[in-house]
């Protein structure tokens, strides 16, 4: 049988990363965020009260929803208007997420396969509960005897988010920059699944979906620190990786991506893991 203490720690991780769905969450108090009648996110009540100061951009809460004004009928108009509001709100010390403002932008979409609604600073997505997308790579090796090991990265202590924690080896577009993985190797990464979850904290509602790739690395290859986003890399046996997943030493969503790897590659099986179904469900939640 699987170690029950380990299983409980993994379940606790999944509950934390999906706490927006749990009884007692702030979901019931949130307003739907709508654009042209379509829901694109969830707005916490404290944020909604701030947005009422800008009636030329956001319609007052009605019927459980906050909407962008109908006059903002294009990608450019919406992006410009919302950014102007957010730049003003940066002066409001109550919104902790705005203290870490970065000039990284991301698109807000009705869904992943539909057109963009507008553009937001990445650090502000939690204010609107809009879906965010990312890419994670599971870098691993297979020995001549068939033993699987996994490459993990240690994030730089200077990272603004999750400094110093363990992470996946790299993102697809950052293989060369972060891990010095040549294009000839990186292009062999293949998409395998998505990991989706929604959590809330003091900074807002975070609905995220990570596109997951597996990349078998040559036995002789060793990732190297590139742009300073990572401080070190480790090649670890699967038993050690599994042990680390239940610790506080892992970036939470990256731990979920590794957990998914272990399930897909049959290192965690339903015959020996009593929480197998809960693990799978917790990795693939859909925001409703």
Structural summary, described in words:
This is Thiamin pyrophosphokinase 2. The structure is a single chain. With 288 residues, the chain is an alpha+beta fold. The chain is 27% helix and 28% strand. It folds into 2 domains: 1-21 and 133-283, Alpha-Beta Complex (Nucleoside Triphosphate Pyrophosphohydrolase), CATH 3.90.79; 27-129, 2-Layer Sandwich (Transcription Regulator spoIIAA). It has helices at residues 4-17, 45-51, 75-89, 125-128, 175-179, 183-186, 238-245, 252-264, 276-283, and strands at residues 31-35, 38-43, 65-67, 105-109, 116-121, 131-142, 148-155, 166-167, 190-201, 204-216, 230-237. Strands 6, 7, 8, 9, 10 and 11 form a 6-stranded mixed sheet that branches. The protein is globular and about 65 Å long. The model has no long low-confidence stretch (mean pLDDT 89).
Biggest β-sheet, characterized?
6 strands, mixed
Low-confidence stretches: none
Through-space gap between termini: 35 Å
Query: What is the H/E order?
Result: HEEHEHEEHEEEHHEEEHHH
Please state the overall shape, judged from the principal axes of the Cα atoms.
globular
C-alpha Rg, in Å? 20 Å
**Helices and strands: which structural class?**
alpha+beta
Can you identify the CATH superfamily of the largest domain?
Answer: Nucleoside Triphosphate Pyrophosphohydrolase
Give the DSSP E fraction (strand runs of 2 or more residues). Answer: 25-35%
The CATH architecture of the largest domain would be Alpha-Beta Complex
What fraction, in percent, of the residue positions are helical?
A: 25-40%
Total helix count? 9
CATH topology of the largest domain: Nucleoside Triphosphate Pyrophosphohydrolase
Give the total of domains: 2
> How confident is the prediction overall: mean pLDDT?
89
Number of strands: 11
At the first level of CATH, what is the class of the largest domain?
A: Alpha Beta
